[in-house]
Structures are given as structure tokens and as C-alpha cells.
Amino acid sequence: MIFTVKALVFVSFLFCIVSCQSQNLISKTDEKKNSISNDTLFVNLKEYSQDFLYDMKYATTDNFLNAKVYDCAECFLRLKTIRALVEANEKFMEKGYKIKIFDCYRPLDIQKKMWEIVPNPKYVANPSKGSIHNRGGAVDLTLVNGSGKELDMGTGFDFFGVEASHDYPTVSHTVKANRNLLKTTMISSGFNSFDSEWWHYNVKSGLNDTISNTKWECK
Ligand SMILES: [Zn+2]
Prior knowledge:
Bound molecules: zinc ion
CATH architecture of the largest domain: 2-Layer Sandwich
Number of helices: 4
């Protein structure tokens, strides 16, 4: 009888180990699932940080389209892109700089509108393929100094010429250093650079997300 009780206790103990471990696994899996689903959400950058400056070019006519294609200026991105961007900005702030944003997530309808105005893949991504901007993983930006003045990057935003390329050889030392600061910090925070546009950065694995037409409300 004593042996049976001992055996029962032992079996219960074994069962507890297995079930407790499996409960732990379930909760970890759920946690993982939740963080993945959270990562697909679009969120507004200003709700996560007040340390960015904005010049949302496509919410004005001051852009290469000469057209205002957003009803209002907001910077929505997927949560993982926002986290990487905030991390990058913290690193810049330690050095006395801040990020100024030109464009963020771009709903597919806006991409179509841009394509209607300039149907040239050299300047606008074809909406039938979409871009990482349409996936919430791309951001266009520059850096400003402590007085809010933009650093010299050699060309303006959306300058379509070889001079805007990271590898363009005949830029000044200052421009080279500024582009390099931007690029190395963005890469170390989870982004990839885009060779022909010094201002464009894609969050790593941004191409894995789906193209979206989610729109934000203008207040
Ligand atoms: Zn871009």
C-alpha cells in the first residue's frame, strides 16, 4: 500500500512536471503569437515619441509631383518599424541630432494616385507591385542639428539623380560624413539602406509584410 501511494505521488509529480512545462510552452507560444500580431499593427509615431521633427512632403504641394496626395500629415508605420526608428533617434540624440521625417506608410490608394500623376517607375513604384512604403516598413528621413537645421546631405529629398546615391563619389567630406552617420546608425537599429536614395530606409524583413490600404482618420 505504501508503495502504491509512493508510486502515485511519483506519477503525479511526473505529470506535474510535464503539464507545468506544457503550460509554460503554451503561454510562451501565446506571448510570441501576440507579439507577432502586434507587429503587424499600424501605429502613429507621435504616440510613441515626441522627439521627431516632421516635414511630410506629400501632404503639401512641395514635392516632385507638385500635388498634395495625403489629406493630412501623419506618420503611421508598423510597430516593429516604429520601434527601430525610435531606437535610431535615441542614438542620434546622444550625438546632438534628431530625425526629421518626410514620408512613412503610404496606403495603396495613395500609391495609385501618385502613379496616375507620374506613371514612371523611375520616380514612383508601380502600385501593381507596391513598395515597402505600402507595407509600413519604409521611411524617408534626414537629420537635423540642435538648432533644427537639416544636415547637408548633398541633395534635397526626392532628388532623382546619381548625386543622391550613397556611393556617389564626388561629394564633400561633410556630406559623406553626414550620409555615413545616417546610414550606419539606421543599419545598426534594424534598417537597410537603399543605394540610390540617401533618405530612404527599409526595416529589415519589411518585404515580408503585406501591402495595405489601411487609412488613417484626419482630425
Ligand atoms: Zn522612400
